[in-house]
Amino acid sequence: MKKLSRRELMRFSALGAGSALLAGCLPPPPPTTGSTDAAAEAQPAAPAPAAAAGDKVMIFPWWFWEEVIEHAWNLHKVPRLLGGRLVDLDLDGAITPYLAEKWELSEDRLTYTFYLRQGMKWHDGETVDAEDVAFTVNYLVSDKNLQSSGADVGWGSLKGAQEYKAGTAQSIAGLEVVDTYTVRMTLPTPDGGWMTNVPTAMNILPEHIYKDVPIESIQENHAPIWFEPRMHIGTGPFKWVEGEDEKFVRLARFDDYWEGKPLLDGVLFTNVGESDTQFLALQKSEVDYLTLSGNFYTQAQTFDNVNIEVFDRPYHRWLDINVDKPYLQDVRVRQALNYAVDRQLLSDSVLVGLAQPWYSVIEHDRWLNADMPKYEYDPEKAKELLAAAAADGAWDPNQAIELYYYYPDSVSKDFMAGLQKFFTDVGIKTNLIYIESAVSTEKDVKGEYDLMYAGWGATPDPTAYARGFDCKDGSAFFRSYEPETCQTVWDLFEQGKQLSDFDERKAVYDQIQQIYGEEAIAVPLFRFKTAVAINKRITGFDLGSQAWQNSWIFSKHNGHKWDVTG
Q: Which among 522, 565, 467, 434 is positioned nearest to 2, based on CA atoms?
């Protein structure tokens, strides 16, 4: 099975990145009053392609275009409006129906049977059926599939999938079309997280289109083929009309959408510039939705044309402790590092309240162990622990610790300076060292660091975290700690994978979090929050819709309910 690399698991989600904007039937912009410094320095946005007269169109200027056209079946913004997955997740991470209206799990916990909704249509009018589902699995497991989308650790985990990929089998043994609207999938061993991690992750593809598309022709993210309308025929509430690389993508309402005819006439994604220009447009009511961060979050609260919403983002940051270093092997030293940090102060000040102190390796609420050790800010306790360790020869007060970080944004630099001060206050000498991302990976694999500032956001099932605790994987996050403890944690992950009952599984992952805290394997710091500004004339844009714009939250967007008034 192909493992996701450290870098794939820790995709950067900067505080100022990933904004999305909406507008529809906009009135003339009002006079600008009370411009902020950031808005005053912004350059006007480039004009977007005009909508047809009278159309109700939401406009999403989006900066990160590599995610707009990257892989038609993935979880990014445009593909999620165009297509649909077998099942979906609610905001708590629980599995909900989508293209499959129901499913069954066999008694041996190996076989999943999915029952598709009948009568669903592709954007070109063809009927969606089980053959499309089977084709999608075969297509993504193909031996020519060079994508790093997770097909190997997803559909490729089905019984016989790797043999099919290697060419030693003519078909996937664990994939069966039962009838027109029923498909059955079988795993070689039980996997309690499979339903959360796999059927929710990629759109189902239309066989009658993709059977004529050589998979090698779509390996390049921005290849011309991605701008052909046929490549985006899906089951979603909007269908592809046209697009131009790094400029715009226009979608139109799909009247036969299975959840009902959308209220909007269409959606427009257009490249209007960077965050300062977007913020100026928000202030002028030229756009209706914007993800906020830093000073923008503070300034937008003075606008009377928007509502500000804040919600939890399942992505957290921590300090990776290299326990291979002798001076970090005593648990008291690691606990002192934890007690030394005032997480609340850093979250409120440097992160302007868009974070909360965090203590677990898991960032999804439904799996949290509420009773695990939490290292509240206690500098005196940190000093006591260091003194005790020094008395036993396990800590040298003159030892300097190197703290590496690879996030280049100014907020991260300020956060590092804050950490350095807290460590200095309890007597830990700390050198801050910025390195490029590629260098951090090399140092991590070779163990050439003391502390490494890192972060991740994983799928809503704890099985995804196991890779970080693989004792035999040199690039795993927490592989450098006591072998006995490492094996215990790994065995618990394996145990949790074998179970299907939520309460039974949670009890196992509670044990993992308990060990994580007691052994102070790392210094967990904070979990992000996301703030969005929504123009008061937007309707139907619920919390799931807001979260849809965030790469770390897997939720149903309800695009067919979006509307604009006024």
A: 467
CA distances from 278 to 49, 77, 232, 295 (A): 16, 18, 27, 14
Question: Which tops the pLDDT comparison, 11 or 153?
Answer: 153
Instruction: Give start-end residues of each CATH 3.40.190.10 domain in the chain.
Output: 15-303+530-564
Question: Residue 40, SS3?
Answer: helix
pLDDT digits (tens, 9 = 90+) for 324-347: 899 999 999 999 999 999 999 999
Which CATH code fits 314-528?
A: 3.10.105.10
276 phi/psi in degrees, rounded to 5? -65, -40
Instruction: Write out the H or E segment, with its range, that includes residue 7.
Output: helix 6-9
Residues facing residue 58 across a β-bridge = 267
Instruction: Please say whether the dihedral angle defined by the alpha carbons of residues 367, 371, 373 and 379, taken in this order, is positive or negative.
Output: positive
Cα distances (Å, whole numbers) of residue 153 to 6, 172, 423, 502: 15, 15, 40, 22
Q: Which fold has domain 15-303+530-564?
A: D-Maltodextrin-Binding Protein; domain 2 (3.40.190)
Q: Which two tokens stand for residue 390?
A: 């020094």
Residue with the bigger pLDDT between 28 and 497: it is 497
Q: Where in the chain is the domain with CATH 3.10.105.10?
A: 314-528
> How far is CA 329 from each of CA 122, 189, 326, 474, 519, rounded to the nearest angstrom?
58, 36, 5, 18, 10
Residues 6+ apart with CB under 8 A from 535: 22, 23, 282, 285, 287, 288, 289, 305, 306
Q: b vs e for 288-324, b when ≥16 Cβ sit within 10 Å of the residue's Cβ?
A: bbbbbbbebbebbeebebbeeeeebbbbbbbbbbbbe
Residue with tokens 């030229």: 286
pLDDT at position 438: 86
pLDDT band at 550 (very low <50, low <70, confident <90, very high): low
Phi, psi torsion values for 84, nearest 5 degrees:
-155, 150
Question: What residues have CB less than 8 Å from 370, skipping those under 6 apart?
Answer: none
Distance between start and end Cα atoms, the chain: 53
- Summarised one tens digit per residue, pLDDT across range 112-158 is 999 999 999 999 999 999 999 999 999 888 866 545 444 455 788 89
- CA diameter of the chain: 78
Q: d(Cα 465, Cα 513) in Å, to the nearest integer?
A: 11
Between CA 495 and CA 485 the distance in angstroms is: 15
| Beta strands 522-535; 355-357: pairing state | antiparallel
**Highest mean predicted confidence (pLDDT) among 285-289, 386-390, 493-497, 555-559:** 386-390
Residue 450, CA distances (Å) to 47, 317, 430, 512 in order: 49, 16, 10, 23
